[in-house]
Amino acid sequence: MANITIDxxxxxxxxxxxxxxxxxxxxxxxxxxxxxxxxxxxxxxxxRNAYGKAVQxxxxxxSAGEEEIEILGDNITFDD
Length: 80
Description:
Layout: E1 3-6, E2 9-12, H1 18-59, E3 69-72, E4 75-78
Antiparallel strand pairs: 1-2, 3-4
């Protein structure tokens, strides 16, 4: 018998209705997806930083050419 605490009240999981169990299953799924999305975002931010660093390395002190790129630390913005 597993227990679950919801809003400070402890419940025996086996005694919960199927509807509540299904909702709790959905919450677990969503929590896992949120965690996965956070990890994906962290990986994408790391990649973006690496690309920005590569741009800075190539540009050095020179000009960005026809397309103006503003480099502020790790932030890069494109002016269209």
